[in-house]
Amino acid sequence: MIPLRDKKRSKTIPIVNYLLLALCGLVFLYELSLGQRVDEVVAAYGAVPARIAEATHGVVSLNRLASVLTAMFLHGGWLHLLGNMLYLYIFGHNVEDRLGHGGYLAFYLLSGIGATVVQVSANPESQVPMIGASGAIAGVLGAYFLLFPKGRILTMIPLFVYFPVIEVSAFFFLGVWFLLQFLQGMSSFGAESGAGGVAWWAHAGGFLVGALLLPIFLLLRRRPSR
Length: 226
Hints:
By secondary structure, the chain is mainly alpha-helical. The protein has nine helices and three strands. Strands 1-2-3 form a three-stranded antiparallel β-sheet. Helix 8 crosses helix 9 (200-222).
């Protein structure tokens, strides 16, 4: 299923979501400008599970910790980038509307960090750099799932040469999405993931992290300022 748009309009301008979209796009253009040297950037700034796992045993370096954040803005190709940005564009604006600009940015980054932690826990010996915004975006999807379960998603269903467009609930669309990520994750134990594959547990984990973080952020959002 490919989402085309949601039917719920946000009440505010999703400034942070637009900035995240722009930043990912600019970083990708920079990657393209590097040619074959891009592999060095991915190796340096991608999140390598084995290196991050070592940090939990006392081997800590600033570069290893920073890679959890920098990896969110790197992408492995046009399809990787455009697929992620499509989901962020469709589902991010209403979540930002509910969390506020600053809250949404913090939520997005924490979801990405949590997604990386889940993927590292599932495959701590992998030497393949993980890159992409999908873990953080999965957190946004988890929040949308709880906030707007009855929201309507215009969805295209690729069926060989036929591409019907239907309208489904966010509960159904995102529920199916999560189930697919979870099942793929279960079948991928022990497989390398990241630059050469898909970090399924980052997707499923990011979704759950976002769902768990949402009540906390909503509570902070509602707390009256002194």
